[in-house]
Amino acid sequence: MTVLVTGGAGYIGSHVARLLIERGSKVVVADDLSTGLEARVTAVEHVQLDLASADAVQQLRSIIKTHSIESVIHLAARKKVGESVALPEWYYQQNIGGLANLLEAMKAEGVDRLVFSSSAATYGMPDVAACREDMICQPINPYGETKLVGEWLARAAARAWGLRVVNLRYFNVAGAGWPDLADTAVANLIPIAFAALKAGKAPVVFGSDYPTADGSCVRDYVHVHDLADAHLSALDYLERDDRKFDTFNVGTGAGSSVFEVLAEIKRVTGIAFEEVVEPRRAGDPPSLCADVSRINEELGWHAKQGLAEIVESAWSAIN
Ligand code: WQD
Question: For the whole prediction, is pTM greater than 0.85?
Fold first, then answer.
């Protein structure tokens, strides 16, 4: 089976591509290398392509034909929340325009299986202990909106021409499945805390007065290798099940607070730092955790690794 992985030079996409290859699939990567790294995709065929560009449909059709693509895992997207607030038009053009081009090419070439990289950002500020896929989604920034609208666009294509799609709503992805595929972006809590320690500074906690057990924000951290594995489970599901449109949370079902993550970082690094508590960061939900019963039951997927493995693998990948 040949799978097209868009965004396959990125942190998550490169894990998906490598796991597919390891399990015997042929993989073609399409990535514009704007944030992805070419070094991550040496093992697979790579086409440099901006999915939202004017000639993307033609290029995608040619890739699909040349490589006899049978299914697509679509991760290529802009994903910086703050940037999306400043540049909403560009976020919609990139994330929705890119998906529309991809779907047009898939439809024209008769490729009907899609795994779409969605996000827990679709839920916004939920007032529940664990988010269920059938909850009403109220994203609070353009990034989250583009993920929700992307799900709707895929659903419309499912109704219109028989696309079969699985949306995976990622929670907080971290860790490294292979040291050379580590997250180099320094945009999330664990990489930011490591960068601070390497610079001899103390990690920062954004708010300790939330209505949570220890006052800091709680998130559902999922290991990137487990997340990659969920994409393979989703592809298998699309092969065996004829349902047209489905959405699954990808998390562990267990939350960790910022203080708990930092305690794990102290243990793993052996550095006895004192974290600095700063005011709350705008737009942070106090708690965002996944209800994982659907993905457990329907896809037979369970996270195998926890916070210890996440922090250990992320730290050893950069040392
Ligand atoms: C986690 C927690 C911070 C840094 C974001 C996007 C989301 C998704 C994943 C996808 C929060 C706290 C952080 C620090 C801290 N994006 N924190 N000190 O905000 O849950 O999710 O990334 O592509 O859409 O919003 O992740 O890692 O930024 O923060 O205390 O130095 O850590 O306030 O509670 P977040 P994060």
Answer: yes
